[in-house]
Amino acid sequence: MEKETGSVHWSFHIPDGILPDLSANAIAISDSMLCFSIWENSEDKGQLYTLDKITGNYLWHHTFDTTGVYSPTIANGNVYAINWRTNSIWGFHLQTGQHIFFDASAKYLHQPVVADNALFVEAFGAVVSFKSAGTGIKAILSEKKSFELVPNHPNPFNQSTRFKIHLFRSDHLNISVYNLLGARIKTISDRNFSAGSHVFIWDGTDDRRHTVPSGVYIVRLGTGSYAKSMKMILIR
Questions:
Q1: Domain shared by 106 and 190, yes or no
Q2: How far apart are CA 109 and CA 104, in angstroms?
Q3: Is the residue at 81 inside a domain?
Q4: Residues 6 or more apart from 201 whose CB is under 8 A from it?
Q5: Range of the domain at 174
Q6: How confident is the model over 198-234, as pLDDT tens digits?
Q7: Can you tell me whether residue 24 is helix, strand or coil?
Q8: CB 81 within 8 Å of CB 111
Q9: Are 128 and 193 found together in one domain?
Q10: Which of 14, 76, 115, 163 has the fewest other C-beta atoms within 10 Å?
Q11: Residues 6+ apart with CB under 8 A from 113
């Protein structure tokens, strides 16, 4: 749309049958590209679309496993978006749509900001800086540590694996398992715990008690002010 006159240069229509919740959309713009997020479509999934800013031509889109996609940010040839449902941040190559980055180690809240070649995201009780967003290397700038995590053992595992945390104080603890696509497949715990040591076991099943296939899984542990994640390798 022309800024001075309001005349329309081009328009883009979402494919038939995929109706967006327009009230939750957000847009990010670069010199030549435009990205917009759809919080929830008619298939109960969030989406991220990328168009040519000048012509309006469709370039690529990504459909997430859950609703809750928002706050796209374009920087350094990539686009980043937050998935509120899975408490995760995603990164894609702006030109190709290739998935390059995923992290679910904090409760991300607000739009990412890029400065000094680093990606900054405000999370619940923390500001997280991804110094290399392509590899997921990060530094916690400000947070209130509420537990210590002992890595799971055995790892890799076949039947089950266990891990222990030590809570410094009574707190609500959520422990969830994700696959590498960012979909939550198992909630191990989501309740209050007293201070002290607690042991948890994952038996390689999802929330419906179905056995999941071999692969790499991410377990995310979080309280109201602190979160950590670790990889678990399941070999059938």
A1: no
A2: 12
A3: yes
A4: 160, 161, 162
A5: 147-234
A6: 999 999 999 999 999 999 998 888 887 677 888 899 9
A7: helix
A8: no
A9: no
A10: 115
A11: 73, 119, 120, 121
